C-alpha cells in the first residue's frame, strides 16, 4: 500500500460565505413544475434550541432512477452577463445548496431519491462556529422500506432524528439539531 | 466580564499541551480541528455531544461515495481572476494562488469545482454584516471559481487580503486568509477550509487556526511563497496543494 498523503485540515465556513457560496435557485433541484416534486424543509437549531441563521446546507442524492452520476449545471452561468441561468430543466444534477434564512429555516425542492434501500437525501451542514462540517441523512418516512445498515443500527429515539416526516403538499419536515435534546445523528464515513 | 487575548491564550495553550501530551503517549494524530473547541466561542453551542455514527464505506451503493459534478457551464472565463471583475483594478498587492487538488492516494481530482472568497486588501468583506470600519473597494468583490485541469491544477489571480478584527474576544484579529470550498469525487471528500500566508505574526493569537491542534496539520494550511510563480513587475506567486480526506468509490472503478 503506497504511503498516503496527509489531508488538508477543515476550517469553519465563517460568517461571510453568503456572497460567495449560495447561488440563485440552489434549492430548486427538481425541474420547475415537475409533478413529482417534493420539498424537504425544516430548521437548523443550536444547543439551546435557537435557530441558526447562518448555516449552509448542501444536499446530494440519487436521481429518481437510482443514478448516482449527477450532472453539471447546478449553478449554470450566463457567459454574457456573468449572472445565473438556473438549471437547464432537463438534467437532474442531484446537488442542492441552501443557506438558512433569518429564522434558521431551509427548503429544498427536489425529486424523490431512487437509491437502493430506503430512500434518503444526504445532507452536509456548514456554519459559523462549526469547525468541521457535519453529515447526516434525511430518510423519507413514507418511501419504500427495507433493511438499512445505518437505521437498523440505531435505537428508536436516535433513529427518529434521521426520518423526514411527510406533511401537506408533498412536503417533508426535517429539523437538524446540532446539540442537546433530540440531537441529530451525524455520520462519519470510513 | 471582558474576555482578553490573555484569557484565550491560556485556554488555547492548555488544549495545545493536552493534545501534545496525548500524542506523545500514543494517541492518534488529529488532522482536523475538534468541533468542540471552546476558545472559538461560536463553537460552544454548535457541535454535537453524541459521538458520530460510523458508516462503512465498503458498500458501493452508499450514496455519499459519489458526489456532485460540475462543468464549464457552471463557471465563466473570468471567474478565476478576481482583479478583472469590475471596471477598474482593485487596490492591494496583486498575487496568484495555484496548486493541485489531490486525494489521499495522491491522485489528481480532475475537472472539479473550487470556490474561494476573501476580504479585500483593507480587511473587509463585501458582506452587509461586515461592519469593520475599513473601506470597501468598488473594484473588488472577492469571489472566485474555477475547475481543476487534468492534473488537478487550479489557478487564481487576486489581491492579498488584509487581516481583520472580530469579536471572539477583545482585540481579536484574524490572520490574512482566503476561504476555499472544494469537492472531490465523493461527497465524503467535501472540504471547506482557509489558506493562510507564510510567517503571519497573528498565527499564535488566532483560536480558529489554533483549533487545528496538530502543528504539522496547521502547517498544511499555510501557502508557500514561490518566486518562480511570481510574474515580473506584476504579481507575487503563492503555491498551495490541497489534499482531500475521506473514502471514495474511485477504487471500485479502477479495480474493474
Automatic annotation (TrEMBL), chain A:
Organism: Streptomyces sporangiiformans
NCBIfam families: protocat_alph
Ranges for domain Intradiol ring-cleavage dioxygenases: 36-153
CDD domains associated with the record: 3_4-PCD_alpha
Keywords, ordered alphabetically: Dioxygenase, Oxidoreductase
Any GO MF annotation of the entry: ferric iron binding
One protein family per Pfam: Dioxygenase_C
UniProt protein name: Protocatechuate 3,4-dioxygenase subunit alpha
PANTHER family, A to Z: DIOXYGENASE, PUTATIVE (AFU_ORTHOLOGUE AFUA_2G02910)-RELATED, PROTOCATECHUATE 3,4-DIOXYGENASE ALPHA CHAIN
EC number of the protein: 1.13.11.3
Similarity annotation: Belongs to the intradiol ring-cleavage dioxygenase family.
Entry superkingdom: Bacteria
UniProtKB/TrEMBL annotation, chain B:
Molecular functions (GO terms): ferric iron binding; protocatechuate 3,4-dioxygenase activity
Enzyme Commission identifier(s): 1.13.11.3
Entry-linked PROSITE patterns: INTRADIOL_DIOXYGENAS
Name used for this protein in its record: Protocatechuate 3,4-dioxygenase subunit beta
Similarity section: Belongs to the intradiol ring-cleavage dioxygenase family.
Root EC class: oxidoreductase
Classification via NCBIfam families: protocat_beta
Pfam families xrefs: Dioxygenase_C, PCDO_beta_N
Domain Intradiol ring-cleavage dioxygenases: 97-125
Cross-referenced Gene3D superfamilies: Aromatic compound dioxygenase
Record keywords, A-Z: Dioxygenase, Oxidoreductase
Gene Ontology process terms (BP): 3,4-dihydroxybenzoate catabolic process
